[in-house]
Design brief:
The complex is a heterodimer of chains A (about 325) and B (about 325). Chain A is an alpha/beta fold. Chain A has helices at about 55-60, 85-95, 110-125, 130-140, 160-170, 190-205, 215-220, 240-245, 250-255, 265-270; strands spanning about 5-15, 25-40, 45-50, 70-75, 80, 95-100, 175-180, 210-215, 225-230, 235-240, 310, 315-320. In chain A, helix 3 (about 110-125) packs across helix 4 and helix 4 (about 130-140) crosses helix 5 (about 160-170). Chain B has one domain: Rossmann fold (3-Layer(aba) Sandwich). The chains are: A alpha/beta (about 325), B alpha/beta (about 325).
C-alpha cells in the first residue's frame, strides 16, 4: 500500500464580493467549501467538474497560490497552509504546477533554457554547473532537442511549449505536481503526445499528480482515483473503475452520460440524463443539496439538509441522501 | 433528388508572406437536405476556411477562390455578387460561430440582435421582429424568453449565449446551418443540451447541418457522413459509422485512437495512447505533389513522397486519399 503523500482536510477558499452600494455587510463567495481528499505517493488523483465548480481554485490553494480560508493541507507531515518565509520556499520545491495555457504561462522575453532554470535559481542552492546539467537532462526527458534551448517561446508549437512547462515543473524534483488542464488548449493529436509524456515521466520518476480536468475521457485515462466537484463541494470520490462503471451520484451520472463517445455499445447502453437549468448563484447558495434544483431524483429532504460525503463501500464516497 | 449543395474541385488560395498557399486544395462534396455532414481535423487543416468560403466570408484581399464551384440552388456562389451573397447569408445559409462571447455584440441586447436579422432579411417591422425574436428564444429553450430578450450578452451563461447564437442563425429558417465548433467553449452537460437542441431543430425545419469539430465522439453522435481534412485536402470521406469502425486513412485512424474514450468494457490496464507524432505542416508546405501526411505517417513508403495519393473508392461508399488505403 503506497503511503499518503497529500492529505487535504476541510479546505475552504472564499472570496470577498461586493454587492449593493458598498454599505452593507460583506458577502463571500465560497469557491471551495470544506473539501477533503488524499493523494497517494506515485498515484494520480483527478478533480473533475464543470467550469465554476472550484476545481482550479482548490488546486491553487493546495499550492499556496491563493490564500485558503480554513482547513489543512498536509504534505510530508507539515501543513502547507501554515508555512511562512524560508519554510514556505522549501515547500514550494516540493509542489510544482503545470498550467493550462502554454501560450500565456511562459515569459515571452526569456529563452527556453532560462525558463526551465528559473525554479532552480529561485528555490534551490545548487551550483551553476549542476543547474546546467539538470536543465539539459530535463530537455531530453520531455522530448526537446538540445539546440532548442536557446529559442524563445514563440518559436515553439503549442505542444512543445507545454513540454517546456512540464520541464519547468520537474526542475526542482517536486513530490507533487499539480496539472491544471494541461492538455485542454492543445489539438487532439498533440494532446495524446503530452498525456503519454506525463505518464512516462510518472513511471520514471515516481511522480504524484493532482490532475485537474473537465474532459472525462482524459481523466479516465490518467487517474487512479477521481473526485467530482459541483459548486465547491466534492459530490463523489472513488477509484477509477468504480466511478466509471458504477457512478452513484446523480450529477456524476449525468456528467458521464453527456460525454459523446465513438463506442457504439457504450452509446446504446447509456441513456442521456439531461440536467436542465443552470447551477445556483454561488453567492446565494440554496439550503440543502446544491444540486437539488437540477437533480432528476430530488426529494423534499434534499432541499432541506445538506448531504454529507459518506462511504458507501470500498472507499467509494458519495454525498447524496438517496444513495 | 438533387443535392442541396454541391462543391466541385474547390481551391482556395491565401496570400501569405511566403507566397500563395492553397488552404483548400481540390475539395469536392455534396450535401443533401436534412442531413448532417461533419468536417473533422486538427486546427490549421482548412475546416473553417471551407465554411467561410461557403458563406462568402473569406478574408478580404488575402483569401480568394482560385477555381472550382459552389453550387447552391443551381447558382454558383463563387460567381455571385456581394449583394446576392448578402441575400443568401442568413436567409439560406447561416452560421454558428465557435466563441459565443466574441461573436455577439456586447452593447446590444440579445433580442435586438436577433430582431436585426429579421428586419434586414425579411423586412419585418420593429415590433414584429421583436415578437419573433422572443419566439425564437423560446424555441431554443431559454427560460423566460420575454424577459431574457432584453438581456445583454454578458448577463447570460455560455450555454445560453450559444443558444442565442443558434436562435439568430435560425431566424430566417435557413436551408443550411454551418456550426463551427459550436460546443468547444462549453461544458459537457451544456454540450449535450446543445446537441439535443440541434438534432430537434433539424427534425423540425429539415435544415442540413455542416458540423465542424475535432471531437470524434461528437461526430459519431451527430452526423451521418463525415469528411476528414488534412492540410487543406480531403483525407477521407464517407458514412460515419463505417469510418469509425474501419478507417482507411492513417490520419483518420490516428485521430480516433489518440483520444482516450470512455468505453463500455473498462479494464485496470491502460496502454499508452497511440499518438500521431509531429504537427500539421505550416501553410507554405501546402499544395505539394506528395502526400502531406507522409512525415507523420507510420505506413509511409517512397511512393508517398513522390506523388499525391489518388482517390480510392471502396464498395461501402468510403473514399480515402491514401496509397495504402487497401492495406489498412
Amino acid at each position: 500500500m503506497p503511503k499518503t503523500l497529500l492529505d487535504v482536510d476541510g479546505l475552504t477558499v472564499r472570496f470577498e464580493v461586493k454587492r449593493g452600494s458598498g454599505w452593507g455587510k460583506k458577502s463571500y463567495l465560497y469557491a471551495v467549501d470544506d473539501i477533503s481528499f488524499e493523494v497517494k505517493q506515485g498515484e494520480t488523483l483527478s478533480i473533475v467538474g464543470e467550469s465554476g465548480s472550484g476545481k482550479t481554485t482548490a488546486a491553487l490553494a493546495v499550492a499556496r497560490l491563493v490564500p485558503a480560508h480554513s482547513g489543512t493541507v498536509m504534505l510530508d507531515d507539515g501543513n502547507v497552509l501554515e508555512k511562512q518565509g524560508e519554510d514556505l520556499r522549501q515547500t514550494r520545491q516540493k509542489v510544482q504546477f503545470i498550467f493550462q495555457d502554454p501560450y500565456s504561462s511562459l515569459n515571452p522575453r526569456k529563452r527556453a533554457d532560462s525558463i526551465v532554470r528559473e525554479p532552480l535559481d529561485n528555490l534551490s542552492e545548487k551550483s551553476e554547473d549542476e543547474k546546467t546539467t539538470i536543465v539539459a537532462e530535463l530537455f531530453e526527458a520531455v522530448g526537446l532537442r538540445p539546440e532548442q534551448m536557446k529559442l524563445f517561446p514563440h518559436q515553439f508549437s503549442g505542444g512543445q511549449r507545454q513540454r517546456i512547462g512540464i520541464a519547468r515543473a520537474l526542475a526542482t524534483q517536486p513530490e507533487l505536481i499539480i496539472c491544471d488542464e494541461p492538455v485542454s488548449a492543445l489539438d487532439v493529436a498533440v494532446q495524446a503526445q503530452i498525456l503519454n509524456l506525463l505518464r512516462k515521466l510518472q513511471r520514471e520518476y515516481n511522480l504524484t499528480y493532482l490532475f485537474i480536468s473537465h474532459d472525462l475521457g482524459v481523466v479516465q485515462h490518467m487517474s487512479d482515483a477521481i473526485a467530482v466537484m459541483y459548486m465547491g463541494k466534492i459530490v463523489e470520490h472513488a477509484d477509477r473503475i468504480s466511478l466509471f462503471t458504477s457512478p452513484r451520484h446523480p450529477y456524476t451520472q449525468a456528467l458521464l452520460s453527456a460525454v459523446p463517445t465513438v463506442d457504439r455499445t457504450q452509446r446504446a447502453k447509456q441513456k442521456r440524463i439531461l440536467i436542465p437549468g443552470d447551477p445556483p448563484d454561488p453567492i446565494n447558495l440554496p439550503k440543502g443539496c446544491r444540486f437539488a434544483n437540477r437533480c432528476p431524483i430530488a426529494e423534499a429532504q434534499c432541499s432541506q439538509t445538506e448531504p454529507e460525503l459518506k462511504d458507501v463501500g470500498q472507499g467509494h464516497k458519495v454525498a447524496c441522501h438517496l444513495v | 433528388m438533387a443535392p442541396l449543395l454541391e462543391v466541385e474541385n474547390l481551391r482556395i488560395e491565401l496570400t501569405t508572406r511566403d507566397g500563395i498557399a492553397p488552404v483548400i486544395d481540390d475539395l469536392s462534396f455534396t450535401l443533401n437536405a436534412g442531413e448532417t455532414l461533419s468536417f473533422v481535423g486538427e486546427s490549421g487543416c482548412g475546416k473553417s476556411m471551407t465554411a467561410l468560403a461557403l458563406m462568402g466570408l473569406l478574408p478580404d484581399k488575402i483569401g480568394r477562390v482560385a477555381s472550382g464551384k459552389i453550387i447552391f440552388n443551381n447558382e454558383d456562389l463563387t460567381q455571385a455578387s456581394d449583394a446576392r451573397l448578402r441575400e443568401i447569408r442568413g436567409n439560406d445559409i447561416s452560421m454558428i460561430f465557435q466563441e459565443p462571447m466574441t461573436s455577439l455584440n456586447p452593447v446590444f441586447t440579445i433580442g435586438e440582435q436577433i430582431a436585426e436579422v429579421l428586419r434586414a432579411h425579411q423586412g419585418l417591422s420593429r415590433a414584429a421582429a421583436w415578437a419573433k425574436a422572443v419566439e425564437l428564444l423560446d424555441a431554443v429553450r431559454i427560460p423566460n424568453p420575454k424577459g431574457r430578450a432584453s438581456d445583454y450578452p454578458f448577463q447570460m451563461s455560455g450555454g445560453q449565449r450559444q443558444r442565442a447564437m443558434i436562435a439568430m442563425a435560425l431566424a430566417c429558417e435557413p436551408k443550411i446551418l454551418i456550426a463551427d465548433e459550436p460546443t468547444t467553449a462549453l461544458d459537457v452537460t451544456v454540450q449535450a443540451q446543445i446537441f439535443d437542441l440541434l438534432t430537434d431543430l433539424r427534425r423540425q425545419t429539415s435544415a442540413a447541418i455542416i458540423l465542424i469539430t475535432h471531437d470524434m465522439g461528437a461526430v459519431a453522435e451527430m452526423a451521418e457522413r463525415m469528411i476528414v481534412m488534412y492540410a487543406g485536402r480531403k483525407a477521407e470521406f464517407g458514412p460515419v459509422d463505417q469510418i469509425i469502425t474501419h478507417p482507411r486513412h492513417p490520419y483518420t485512424k490516428g485521430l480516433i485512437s489518440c483520444v482516450p474514450h470512455i468505453v463500455s468494457d473498462m479494464t485496470e490496464e491502460r496502454p499508452d495512447l497511440i499518438e500521431v507524432p509531429g504537427i500539421v505542416p505550416s501553410l507554405k508546405d501546402f499544395g505539394q505533389d506528395r502526400c502531406l501526411f507522409a512525415s507523420r505517417c507510420a505506413y509511409v513508403t517512397d511512393k508517398c513522397q513522390a506523388s499525391r495519393p489518388s482517390k480510392k473508392l471502396f464498395s461501402n461508399g468510403q473514399i480515402a486519399d491514401c496509397w495504402h488505403a487497401e492495406d489498412l
